[in-house]
TrEMBL record:
Domain of life: Eukaryota
PANTHER family in UniProt: VON WILLEBRAND FACTOR A DOMAIN-CONTAINING PROTEIN 5A (PTHR45737:SF6)
Name the record gives this protein: Uncharacterized protein
Amino acid sequence: MSITTEGTQILQMYVMMTCVMLISLQKASGSWDMGAELAELCGKTTEETAKHMPAQADRSVWATVLALLWLYGFKLDYKEEWQFVAMKAVSWIRAQTAVPSTLPASKAVDP
């Protein structure tokens, strides 16, 4: 096995592990909670993720939007593995009343 092939396999394993870690943080409802683990997976601090959250937004809605942004922004090549997780999250977001105020602010967070 060449170094390049081995390096590629290690990178693929890392990408899959980060996806698995994010998915493991998803609640049964389809939402995510805002916490240090989610912020770290997004490459941000909890302060950075909270800074852009609209004042009237629900923290779980905001966390779920960020998780989806991360999946679509960084893990699109692995969509087959997480597409149903994302569908559940989108369904949960649509059922919430705080969505209109959250979506414009999500554009301010660079994934």
